[in-house]
Amino acid sequence: MSVFHKNSAKLRDQERARLIWLLTTDKAITSALTNKLTLVEQYDAGKLADDIAEVGALVAHLPAPDLADTLEALPSDARHALWGLVEDSKRGNVLLEASESVYEDLIEGMSDKALLDALDTLDIDEKIYLVQHLPRNLTGRLLATLPAEERARVRQVMNYAPDSVGAIMEFEVIVIRPDVTLGAVQRYLRRLGKMPGNTDKLFVTTRDKTLLGELALQTILLNPAQRRVNEVMEAEPVTFHPEEDAEKVARTFERDDLLSAPVIDAEGKLLGRLTIDEIVDVVYEETDNDIRQMSGLSNEQDVFAPVSKAVKTRWGWLAVNLCTAFIASRVIDGFEHTISQLVALASLMPIVAGIGGNTGNQTITMIVRALALQHIQPGNFSFLILREMGVALINGLVWGGIMGGVTWWLYDDPHLGGVMMLAMVLNLLVASLMGVLIPMIMTKLGRDPAVGSSVMITAITDTGGFFIFLGLATIFLL
Amino acid sequence: MSVFHKNSAKLRDQERARLIWLLTTDKAITSALTNKLTLVEQYDAGKLADDIAEVGALVAHLPAPDLADTLEALPSDARHALWGLVEDSKRGNVLLEASESVYEDLIEGMSDKALLDALDTLDIDEKIYLVQHLPRNLTGRLLATLPAEERARVRQVMNYAPDSVGAIMEFEVIVIRPDVTLGAVQRYLRRLGKMPGNTDKLFVTTRDKTLLGELALQTILLNPAQRRVNEVMEAEPVTFHPEEDAEKVARTFERDDLLSAPVIDAEGKLLGRLTIDEIVDVVYEETDNDIRQMSGLSNEQDVFAPVSKAVKTRWGWLAVNLCTAFIASRVIDGFEHTISQLVALASLMPIVAGIGGNTGNQTITMIVRALALQHIQPGNFSFLILREMGVALINGLVWGGIMGGVTWWLYDDPHLGGVMMLAMVLNLLVASLMGVLIPMIMTKLGRDPAVGSSVMITAITDTGGFFIFLGLATIFLL
């Protein structure tokens, strides 16, 4: 028996890399696939035919999630060339797995009919997920093709906030009654013939859908067939409500090692379920978004977007950054007289600003994480702010002392060294105070503390650093 | 029926918050619990007794993962006071769920015997996990208490790299033979009476442990009892090897929606399994670490560490940052003559440096993520670098043009405006080139691209920005 199964993740890693290599290093393949034949003529026709055959074989062999991943790693023209080769039956699943920006790029080039055909292979929960991201005119057309009950569900889901439990829950659940035996449950399951993906438990409800408990597949297998459901079920399951925040729920899934959990309404009636695979997606998205937002990239960033699109998605923060840098520059300009008297200030001031920005960003990163974990509570808030100020004071005295000494030695001016040290201590205190307050205040205002915090703290420590340093210099040195 | 089950995640959220509130706002509770009675005397004894009783009730009610989370959100003295209240039978599980820094803080204050008692309640896979983080002298003592077979396993796991599949895999698996019927499997399971946590499938092997396939619990329930295992099992499961990188494997779990997967050795023999709950922990750790490392915080950061410890964990990057800021400052100092001739340069130069740092950090964030997703391959690398340079050129011309115009207007000097624009274009090109190259080169060298990338790019764009701007000014304006 071979060590690599056909499904080996490593083998598929290699196949994805090979596909990307073929489509990006040899422009002729993309051109031939999209029928731009003028370019093709200069190439060796035999080798080209071989390469195209290999691309086709790889596309046929790779499962949908791997194809979605490959599409994400291609520039737009190669992406569309590859998309043309994906069989109709796989297209729905590829769209499902693709990130939002790739998904939008792909459906832009599809006819309405092709798109509806692709969606046709999906089950209702998958359709609901994709419909939320369709252009408006298509949403209507897709809705029209659905039975009335499913249409009502799509509408219901679209009413929930995009980052809530309601938006990611699944409707397909297996429901059983409390008074039947495990043997009867097993006969029922065999009659059904299949279960929704990632089913690890069934839900026990009354006839009017009130949730009574949950029955793990394990429990069915471990107990005698004549036991009744209500004797062996978990009667106090962890439940969620559709309005809850998906990121918080993800932390509960992690804390309790859940694989799936029921979603109930305010009256305790079962609405659907959450599964760990949706939760893992939430976790990756949450953390990806946090990382990107802290550095001022938008969520929809497509790494392989063309120049024109990439420019647009980054202009927002660049403009904000330019404004804050401009304000800091005006602060310096206000001290033009001081600098002209003592040019050394110009070369020292970026140190004060830089060290403040560094400390402020460290503090913010820590606080944003602690907020996500719900570790910050009214009780421990004052401890945290005093601790941060204490750390800043010690760091300021130690590193400010060192820089003050170096400055004294470099410029042979003890007063300049003293101003340097004092400015560093003060700017570090400002940085750590604001590093705690900015994310806390943004959370109080109901905003995501990760978005733009970094830009704000840098603006404050730059402007503050220049002002403190040049201000102290004006007072003590002129 | 009440809408909140006893297990409701929301209720536990409230209980955790209440516990933190009690232990941090009223110092008397912590003091009383740790027998520092001098402080206690000034307080109302009746209220104190009530509060302590409430703390006790909450600790008794909350499950281990919630207690671990609460301990993480407390300063050290309150943390130890709370730890003293946790029952022996829960302590092992709390340690298992606690983050590394909290775990180390807690075991520091425990006697060897108390620690070994706590570990005694855990199963072998859990012991193995914790033993990896024990102080050396305790590892030996714990190993001595284990049967020979388990001892060998612990030694085996400790040989794998900490971020590899081997370090997080579990040994407890249920193994069956291919030629038995599903009915026989079910009788076998009932005899076993329980399954390891998060079991969604059994593993089918030969007598010498060669993996033949996997049998989902779903499959057992959905098929007739007389079918044989090898007729209905998945014969090509996704498998992993113990040396593989856990973060990469996590991406495969996400891509394939896996709940568990077999780990096999080079000969295809079953070693153990990976479960989704370990994978979710890996995902959270990976992304938390990325976020923290990019801003120069160490992994072991404990948000509620005392000042002395917090100072130490942040000195490394602060020192690096101070050095790079110092170098940038020396570059400016080299142009002292230029600045003394035209003081306006001092207020304009931070804009050039700042906008470069912003762009460089955006690029690095994008590249680090694309590397983690294995989206960057030799084939698409040149596209990526040209795209980034293209974006930088356009942004430089547009925003540099605007800033150049503003400078011209402010200082009534077209040449100064021209230098400003040219410097911004050049520094943005440097920023985006280095933003792609730094993480790529660090990956080539086998290092984590997230660690310190941000500090390096800022150093380059600061120093480069000052040098380019002041250099151009010296050439064109003096």
Automatic annotation (TrEMBL), chains A, B:
Lineage of the organism: Bacteria, Pseudomonadati, Pseudomonadota, Gammaproteobacteria, Enterobacterales
Organism encoding this protein: Scandinavium lactucae
Pfam families: CBS, MgtE, MgtE_N
Record-stated family: Belongs to the SLC41A transporter family.
InterPro entries, alphabetized: CBS_dom (IPR000644), CBS_dom_sf (IPR046342), Mg_transptr_MgtE_intracell_dom (IPR006668), MgtE_N_sf (IPR038076), MgtE_transporter (IPR006669), SLC41_membr_dom (IPR006667), SLC41_membr_dom_sf (IPR036739)
Subunit and interaction comment: Homodimer.
Keyword Cell wall biogenesis/degradation among record annotations: no
Keyword Signal: no
Residue stretches spanning the membrane: 391-411, 417-442, 454-477
SUPFAM superfamilies xrefs: CBS-domain pair, MgtE membrane domain-like, MgtE N-terminal domain-like
Topology with respect to the bilayer: Multi-pass membrane protein
Protein name, per record: Magnesium transporter MgtE
